[in-house]
Amino acid sequence: MVPSLVVYFGPGEADRGWRDAVEAVALSRGWTLNWLGASEGEISPEDERFILECSPPASPDADGMDNVAILVRPTITDRVPCEDATTLENITRQSEWLARCAQLESEGTSIVDGNEIHITLPKLGDVVRAPLDAHYENVEPSLAVYSEFPLVDGAKANWRASLFHCSGRRSRVVASDDGPTEIDLTGRAGPLISGPYIHLPKGRWRLKTVLEIDPQGGASQLAFDWGDNHHRVYFEAAPNVAGIYEVLMETIRHEAWCGEFRILSLHPHFKGKLSFSGCDVEYVSQI
Question: The whole model's pTM is what?
Answer without folding.
Answer: 0.86
